[in-house]
Write a structure and sequence with these properties.
The structure is a homotrimer of 351-residue chains. Chain A has 351 residues and is an alpha+beta fold. The first copy, chain A, has eight helices and twelve strands. Chains A, B, C: Pfam families: MC_hydratase.
């Protein structure tokens, strides 16, 4: 038996199989500084202990996406080392806050398999749960990836596809502290749940150019070892011709850009679905706009939820895009991300 | 009302107006590691808790410039998002030390306005004060920036220009611990206040090349969101043709380079004036020299002050520059920084 | 006397001379995050406090190589600022673990000198010891560097060359906690001391491309101020034509790549010898393979040692290299590192 882990192929997965991913990670202030430096994120709850304490936390909780990357990165070596493409996400939630000092780990169950008719690959559907050191759930997600087959023409004809909720149901109980009046001079935003309207569109003005060191530092920090992100020599002989940016980094950049207009929406409740519409490479400049898809009242009177669609575009101002897809339903070539997600935002206590 | 903050224009400012900048920031060890990695700074007081304790601190205090960037960065979104140029600094002081764990924030008062005769822009003069979580002043600065007007040809003819001290007066009481004999084997420098002479010039031998990821990581870490630093796509259509480096990063690089010759000058007392003489871009290599402008005795017998002029030059050895300005008083094209500042340096207790 | 440290030249060194290097460094979580982001290292003991505690530590100890770089970096300004080449290492050991919060420093004794017959340079042999704040040894190493002479044609004919052990002797007592059953679901590897065979070769599949910002951030983080790594303007006028990567960064990248196949070998016992066979530059992609040279039983029944040879190759898959040297004993042009070192690996307690 070889000592080298070459990753799993389509045939290696069985429905119901459970995988405990190695490499538990203790999260530190160093990781948090990296996240700010790599994305320019300005959501204040994640930058200031003083503000976090005013908002009911013992100290600043981690940005949900930083926790996502550090936890999710562990699954790459078992699930997607031989992935052709990360096809989608669904039902992603963030049940408990994570703090510096916490140690996170990930477990995965295989929930679906579909062999492709070309005989060369198949789609693997997984359900992953991230835990902290106290066995509390901190991440819950489903995703599906296209993976190479080992034996290209031996057909199993397996086709067992799970169904996913289009949007994650909103729980009765949401695990964030009771919000009193928000210090808008600290958060930088004066808009609350009441101020947003369904159909409203926010063209975020900032653009961020990403360089090779940025995206590779990010992905290495997350101990995500998918070769396509790091190995320029190998990528030169592929149609891409260069290293491909980790899609999660694009999500983080888009979220950071969305700060301008959504300053008080400091918590992600769920990611309902996400598509990496086109690849992103070093030197691309990312812009984004957000549409308010839905306003969701909660039984708590201090918060509400906004279902959002954030579209990220490369090397083109986002306001030039009215619809990210063309008449045939195909993504425009500059669109790199189409993200349907739900955020938590306080209600206006002054009123 | 739009939910997008497009920044303030010249007409939006009024003399006497006070702005509380959002985004208080808790400073961490991650930020300190970034500062060392981004600048190569070697001032020992800021790297070693053991040395800092010998020098009378509870633990290593932050490098003054790192605190400056993390605090100052907050003002960009309110003051200089629509800035054409950062014209100058004056009366910058560092009244109290800052430590990892402290949370800093910034407030600004508008102290002067001058409309430009071209009708397109004006100069805004501001006085900003940074505070820690205990409301102690940690930064006090004045600066002036040229800002776009909203309505190009409506003239207000406002011209109310404050006066600035050419150098900041030295206080009777300086807030650093009483210095005993300095461990020169730890600080790396054997020269003290007594050893420097007015007119002396130090040609610092090191040069540091800055890449795109370096300066954009720095500026994002400081949550400074001025678009000119990040958005390469936008900058390609400007005369600059590329992202402009944050001037503060150039100050930090010059200060780090000045270590070789000024190892014991570990505290900045004030920045008296500063000019970003020419723009700096990725791939430029920065060199620097320092002149001793003035020696200032203090009533404390353990320390003295040196007023310095550090000139940073790009892509040319600093010893080749005898005067950074030509006969017409214009900066030479390779000069990127002309900084007049005062440092605190211990006296030699062995004598 | 000039206040500028221009480094020592060959004539400045005397056998028996002792140098206390300045700049003690308190190691932080920021440094650890940087190391992971810069190298992609995945050895679990250094990432998880929970796992480290299961393995008998109070918290995660530092990766041996990160401690090496942070401690060793201090010697550059005194030993190798005028170095032409770092010729070799021997007898490098890691006597005690280092943790975040520890402060490390370095002392060096000159143990040999050999003038080159060309009259222009000489070889300086040094023995350096790193200490933590409690005066415990954390690093012990010998190395030799070729250094410029000040006076090119004045010959001293000095030739006093120390002898080095080919491999460091294994101590009776090894300072790591007693290892119980290893949690292979956390470390990511199921192979133990018993599973490896002398002569076995592991072709590590990952490749990592290094960019300018990566290697200069690393070297600046270590406060290693050798100009060849930072000053692109100066290097453009040398035969190299660009900045040279710090050899230590290549060692760290090779070690990080070797994780895949050596997951449980989480401690370096010694570096027996190391050659930087060819220079590495930005944009090079590093691959590596490892041969098991020797299996060393220890009187402790929980651990054994593996003497390894890891060869790093640039821009060529490591499996294409059967011997890193050609018939004349000269390194192939793509080989960048030939490292002989000994690691500690647990025995299989399940058997």
């Amino acid at each position: 038996m070889s000592k080298i882990n070459l990753g799993n192929f389509f045939e290696d997965f069985k429905i119901g199989q459970k995988i405990i991913h190695p490499l538990p990670r203790t999260i530190t202030d160093g990781d948090v500084s990296f996240y700010i430096a790599l994305t320019g994120s300005r959501f204040a709850l994640h930058s200031s202990d003083v503000l976090a304490q005013k908002m009911g936390y013992k100290k600043k909780p981690l940005d949900d996406l930083l926790m996502f990357h550090l936890t999710f990165g562990k699954s790459v070596q078992d699930i997607s080392l031989n992935a052709i493409a990360n096809l989608g996400y669904a039902e992603v939630s963030f049940p408990n806050p994570v703090f510096v000092g916490d140690t996170v780990r990930l477990e995965t169950e295989i929930i679906g398999l579909k062999e492709n008719s070309n005989g060369k690959s198949g789609v693997v559907y997984v359900h992953s749960i991230g835990y902290n050191q106290d066995e509390q759930e901190v991440l819950n997600l489903k995703r599906w990836v296209m993976v190479h087959k080992k034996n290209k023409n031996e057909m199993s004809n397996i086709k067992d596809i799970p169904t996913f909720e289009k949007t994650l149901a909103v729980e009765k109980s949401i695990n964030i502290p009771k919000q009193k009046e928000i210090d808008t001079l600290a958060t930088g935003g004066k808009f609350f749940f009441e101020d947003y309207e369904v159909g409203e569109r926010l063209n975020h003005p900032e653009g961020i150019t990403i360089d090779d060191s940025d995206h590779t530092l990010a992905t290495k920090l997350y101990q995500n070892n998918a070769k396509v992100h790091f190995d320029d020599f190998m990528m030169k002989s592929t149609p891409m011709g260069q290293r491909l940016m980790y899609g999660g980094h694009v999500i983080s950049i888009a979220r950071a850009i969305s700060f301008n207009g959504l300053q008080n929406a400091q918590w992600i409740y769920s990611i309902n679905s996400g598509a990496h519409a086109n690849p992103t490479y070093a030197k691309d400049t990312i812009y984004a706009y957000t549409e308010i898809l839905e306003k969701i009242n909660h039984e708590r009177d201090d918060i509400g939820l906004l279902r959002l669609r954030t579209v990220a575009v490369k090397n083109q101002k986002s306001e030039e895009i009215s619809n990210p897809k063309d008449e045939d339903g195909k993504y425009l070539k500059n669109v790199v991300l189409d993200l349907d997600y739900t955020v938590i935002i306080p209600k206006n206590k002054k009123k």
